[in-house]
Amino acid sequence: MPHGEFGLDIITVIGQLRYGEHRSIPEIHQCLVLRGVGIAQRTVTNLLERYEELVALHLADEKRLQERLKQQGQVILAIDGLQPDVGHEVLWVVRDCLSGEVLLARSLLSSTQRDLSALLREVKEAVPVPIRGVISDGQKTIRQAVASCLPGVPHQLCQFHYLREAAKPIFDADRHAKTQLKQQVRGVRPIERRLEEQADAQSQAIYGYCLAVRSTLTDDGRPPLCASGLKLHDRLTQISDSIARVEEKRGDFLPHFENCTAYWRVD
Length: 267
What we know:
By secondary structure, this protein is an alpha/beta fold. It has three domains: 1-60; 62-166, Nucleotidyltransferase, domain 5 (2-Layer Sandwich), CATH 3.30.420.10; 167-264. 58% of the residues lie in helices and 12% in strands. The chain has helices at residues 8-20, 25-34, 41-60, 62-72, 113-126, 140-149, 159-166, 168-184, 188-195, 201-218, 228-249, 258-261, and strands spanning 75-82, 90-96, 102-108, 131-136, 155-157. It has a five-stranded mixed sheet, sandwiched between helices. Strand 4 (131-136), helix 6 and strand 5 (155-157) form a beta-alpha-beta unit. It is elongated. The two termini are 42 Å apart.
């Protein structure tokens, strides 16, 4: 969902548990926590309200959607399966890439060619304009379903999935480099222990560097769009350069911590 912490997959699970299994809010919250979803009970209530709004919008919005698609003259379908937890139902969403509108969303116990073909046929019959293309990941059953239900319609592999596969060797090398860098960065905790009883400006400045290093080590990138190893190297280099500039101006800045801060330098 735009600007939301949780996506349609979690919202759908909450709606299914509430109206399909008649679970209470505390029971839904406990169920999500057991699935490894970090969520507050109050947020479950808020997302249930979003679910109800989406259902109401779907029931009342079909005419507007039909008019918009007619003005557009064509649709390009994006097909994706969202699975909240391994072994559970998959929420399949069919969306129009041109308008951004969700054309169909349905939970399926299996994702066979037959199941996905039924979804595509339903969408094909519902839209009042031609389907000019399809975008999805490379799942075999999706390819088979598209070829069966939409013969002759171009089918493209999703750009993100394509980029992720193409970047995998680079990502593996970057991840290895990040591990190597982390092994070189030590000595933060001993410095913090020495500063616990000190409140002068110099000690606070050193403590700030400790926080910067900790933040750098825990801030991961989002491959393939961001190389976390390169990001770690750049940030450690910036910290090291900053320390060097301070030492150049004030030779007594880190007299007691030289051995520890030497680990922060990146060659």
